[in-house]
Amino acid sequence: MTYVGIIITFVFINNFLLSQFLGLCPFIGVSKNMGPAIGMGFAVIFVMSLASLITWMIYAWILIPLGITYLQTITFILVIAGLVQLVEMAIQKTAPPLYKALGIYLPLITTNCAVLGIALIAVRSNYGAMESFVAGISAGGGFLLVLLLMASIREKLDTEWIPKVFKGEPIAFVTAGLMALAFMAFDKALLRNLIG
Amino acid sequence: MKEPSIIEEFLKGIYRENPIFVIVLGLCPTLAVSTQVVNALGMGAGVIFVLLGSNFFVSLLRNFIPEKIRIPAYIVIIASFVTVVDLFMQAYSPSLSKSLGVFVQLIVVNCIILGRAEAFAKKNTVARSVLDGLGMGVGFTLALILIALIREVLGAGTITLFPMGSFSGVIKIPILVSAPVRVMGLAAGALLVIGYLKAFFNWLDVKGKEKKINSRIRKSQSPQKVSV
Is the pTM of this model over 0.95? Predict the structure, then answer.
């Protein structure tokens, strides 16, 4: 697959939040306001691109030669946890303003299934090193895009009247569902099936 | 605070602290695998096993694991059990393993499991932690089956279970199978269903509280009536 194909696939067609359901917990959690959403989104892009590249290297250069690919779940999650910690320390030392902006979101990312998800999906799709990296960036980009859309909608929702039982999470899910409907337009084959 | 009884420890995960509808954790696999009831059952079984194993070991080792490196230690414990589930499913139920796909491995980052290790198993006895894991796992599975039932019945007009003997494993619902609401089986339907279900449970909660308050008011009023 060409790089453009990978980018379009992961940003729009297979958007991690709206069609793959990866990374929903932070999505619902931090999409209340614009500021945290931006911070979280960029932190996720950063970690996802690095994680997909590094897990590819470990998979191709260590796990396959040693014949221990069944250990991939354990290895990947430890690598991601270590990477997040390392990135956190590196940013803290080299770029304090950036750390201030992203700092509190970094530890949360370890348990974001989108990061482990992209690493596992890249391995399953037999991507090369560069392809994995591009897939990581674009999946993170798709995450940021939807997170920003959602945050701006939820900021507006705050001033609207909402039935009491729908306040908070339920209305967020319904909004996300309607957004997912809109994102279905990006999949032409699916659209053809629906119309008949 | 009074120590909850052992039965309460088990039951709280099923309704009062249901991981999906009340605490809203572990959503990613919930929504992704709830297209068919059989997937929900498979996923639920996997999560129950991992949750039992991780709660057991975290609680067993709670006095040995240093506070500073507890999260990586928990992750290793959880990841080992997930690998067991993954390999077991690949060997004994390849079709299920295929339809659950990457989500079996993603049980590792399911927030319920790490959440229970951190919030419960690290400060409670082994027996209580196992019960807590079992309750939370069953609660998760029941919620998953509920969502999968709604989505599959509306979205495809079928209920898919395991094939047994002459039973093919698929129950067809007469009218819906010829004209299903296909969107329910897709991503958008999953998000809508969980949104409305959460609202429904909120409504039940509010209703329950109102009932309690009303009965309390009635109780406090009744003696006055007598005196009048």
Answer: no
